[in-house]
Amino acid sequence: MRLRAELLAALVALLSTSCGDEVPRGGIPRVAAGAIAVDRRVEPTHLLPADLDLVVRVDLARLRAGLGPTSLEAVAARLPGDALLRQVLARADAVTIGLRADDLEAGDRVVVVEGTLADGVPSPDATRFAPASVVLPAVRVWDATAGGALGREQVARIMRVDDRALVFVTALEVDPTTRVLRDGPDPLRGQPFAEGLVSLDWRPRPLRTSLAQRYPSIASVLRGIVRVRATAAMGEAAVELRAEIEASDEAAAIKAGKFLELLRDNAGDGAGAVLGTASIERAGATLHLTVDVPAEVVLRAVADPPG
Predict the structure, then answer these.
(1) How many domains is the chain built from?
(2) What global pTM score does this model have?
(3) Strand, helix or coil at 96?
(4) Strands 94-99 and 54-59, bridge-based pairing
(5) CA distance 88 to 3
(6) How far apart are CA 246 and CA 206, in angstroms?
């Protein structure tokens, strides 16, 4: 009994000394409410929330090398959206766009523009954006001052990650980006490969009821698809499309593979001529799709129509 009483007294003494304002070495320091708990390194694409299920990355540096800086500036000038976004796109190295695949018309998005921003990039328009509270030292935040007057598709928040990136956030994505700043990156966020001219990461969701009723075969296939990651790279004479399709299990992968083979084998002229070269291979619950699109087909697709 005496030994047990001494152990209990020692435990009480330990707890009473370890719960003060000072913490012994190796302990966890107390952080006042609202203060910055950790100064972690932030990668710009970590700010993409997981509710945006389609994420597309474009390598602007490679496009600039192929098209020339003047052409890329002309393209950026014609894009809709915030003027600052158009300005930085013309000189950026890469842009990553998070979207909601089943509701693209709504305009919900987060756009991450990466490049060297140390010189020549102005701050957001002070008449439209005001500095917000700091959550992480490396990230400056400006929120729109218009409040509820903003349209859903308009930029409501701008973030600057050191001198490495600007992030443009539409209205409904302000709260998710606040959560990501506070809690860290979402594990299921889109992460396209940093390869090729264009890459994407898509986590399909079940089709809306109205669409599922109209296209039951597609809805059935999509229910078994967990993730699609794809890249488009420029080869010597063709654009090489590569896709990795992850299914929920082997049976779902077999169903998706049969569906793709059906599309390939029954497509007509034009697009069918390209799909006819597709290679579809399965390894367990993963499908590997390869398509080489002739360069002239791509050029015809992006060229302005005559006149």
Answers:
(1) 2
(2) 0.78
(3) strand
(4) antiparallel
(5) 71
(6) 15
Q: Classify 37 as helix, strand or coil.
A: coil
Mean per-residue pLDDT pooled into runs of 10, the chain (307 residues): 41 36 35 45 92 93 72 58 77 90 84 83 86 91 80 89 92 94 93 92 91 91 96 84 96 95 77 75 96 72 48
> Does 2 fall in a domain?
no
Amino acid at 151: G
HSE-CB of 142 using CA atoms within 13 angstroms: 20
Q: How far apart are CA 202 and CA 68, in angstroms?
A: 30
Indicate if 178 and 210 belong to the same structural domain: no
Helix-strand-coil percent breakdown of the chain, rounded to 5?
35, 25, 40
Structure tokens at 265: 């084998």
- Cα–Cα distance, 164 to 94 (Å, whole number): 11
In whole angstroms, what is the distance from residue 235 CA to residue 295 CA?
A: 9
* Nearest Cα to Cα of residue 45 among 199, 191, 229: 191
Phi, psi of 72 (to 5 degrees): -65, -35
* Burial bucket for residue 267 (CB in 10 Å: 0-12, 13-18, 19+): middle
pLDDT at res. 189: 94
Cβ atoms of 138 and 154 within 8 Å: the answer is no
> Which of helix, strand or coil describes residue 43?
coil
71: containing domain = 37-190
* pLDDT the model gives residue 79: 57
Assess contact for 155 and 85: CB atoms under 8 A: yes
pLDDT value for 276: 74
Which domain-ending residue is among 190, 214, 238?
190
